[in-house]
Design goal:
Shape: globular
Radius of gyration: 16 Å
Number of domains: 1
Keywords: Hydrolase, Metal-binding, Pyridine nucleotide biosynthesis
Structural class: alpha/beta
CATH class: Alpha Beta
InterPro entries: Isochorismatase-like_dom, Isochorismatase-like_sf, Isochorismatase_Nicotinamidase
Order of helices and strands: EHEEEEHEHEHE
Organism: Halorhodospira neutriphila
Largest sheet: 6 strands, parallel
Protein name: nicotinamidase
CATH architecture: 3-Layer(aba) Sandwich
Number of helices: 4
Pathway: Cofactor biosynthesis; nicotinate biosynthesis; nicotinate from nicotinamide: step 1/1
Length: 215
C-alpha cells in the first residue's frame, strides 16, 4: 500500500465511493469481487495514512427513475434515453433505509469525516460524487462535494470503492474536471463488467486521472 501514501496528507483525501452491501456478490447489483476490497480498504482507512476520509453513499428513494421497475416493459441493464442521454436501467438497489443501502459494516467508518448521500432525487440518477447525471433541464447539478473539499484545503484525491466502471469512474473524472489532482486506486475498486477495464483505464487517463496499480 506504500504507493497510496499521499505526498501531503493534510492536503489529501481518501474518497471512498459507494461501498455498500447491494454492490457486493449476492447483491442485486453485484460488482465482480467487490468483497475483495473490504479487508485492504479497512486496513488503509485505519492506518492513519489519510487524516481526511470522505465517503459517498448511493441512496435511492423507492421508484427511482434509474430502476427498470419504474419503466413498464423494461428489464434491468437495458438502456433508454433520458433527458437526451443514455440511461442504463438498473435492478432496484441501495433503496433508502434498506440494509443493502447501508455503508458496509466491515469498514471502520468512524474514520470518515463526512458521508455524502447521492441519487436522492427520484427523477435524476447520480453516479458521480461531484455532480448528478443529466437533469430534465440538461444540467448536471453539483452535489456540494467540491466546495466541501476546497473549504478544507484538500487538493489531492485518492479514489476507491464501487463500481469501477460507473460511480468510481465518474467521481474520479468529475473530480479532475473540477481541478483536483486525482489518483484512482485501481486495486481498491471492482467493476460491474470487467470486460470494460481497458476502456475505463484509457478513459480515466485521458481525463487527467492518475491510475495507481496495486492496493
Amino acid at each position: 500500500m506504500a504507493a497510496t501514501l499521499p505526498h501531503d496528507p493534510q492536503r489529501s483525501a481518501l474518497l471512498v465511493v459507494d461501498v455498500q452491501p447491494d454492490f457486493m456478490p449476492g447483491g442485486p447489483l453485484a460488482t465482480q469481487g467487490g468483497d475483495e476490497i473490504l479487508a485492504p480498504l479497512a486496513e488503509l482507512m485505519a492506518s492513519g495514512r489519510f487524516p481526511h476520509i470522505v465517503a459517498t453513499q448511493d441512496w435511492h428513494p423507492p421508484g427511482h427513475v434509474s430502476f427498470a421497475s419504474s419503466h413498464e416493459g423494461r428489464e434491468p441493464f437495458e438502456a433508454v434515453e433520458l433527458y437526451g442521454a443514455e440511461q442504463v436501467l438498473w435492478p432496484e438497489h441501495c433503496v433508502q433505509g434498506t440494509p443493502g443501502a447501508e455503508l458496509h459494516p466491515a469498514l471502520p467508518w468512524r474514520h470518515a469525516e463526512a458521508v455524502l448521500r447521492k441519487a436522492t432525487d427520484p427523477q435524476i440518477d447520480s453516479y458521480s460524487g461531484f455532480r448528478e447525471n443529466l437533469a430534465p433541464d440538461g444540467s448536471r447539478p453539483p452535489t456540494g462535494l467540491a466546495g466541501y473539499l476546497r473549504e478544507r484545503g484538500l487538493e489531492r484525491l485518492y479514489v476507491c470503492g464501487l463500481a469501477r466502471d460507473y460511480c468510481v469512474r465518474w467521481t474520479a473524472e468529475d473530480g479532475a474536471a473540477a481541478g483536483f489532482e486525482v489518483h484512482l486506486l485501481w486495486g481498491l475498486t471492482r467493476p460491474v463488467d470487467p470486460a470494460d477495464d481497458d476502456a475505463v483505464r484509457r478513459g480515466l487517463e485521458g481525463r487527467g486521472v492518475t491510475v495507481v496499480d496495486g492496493g
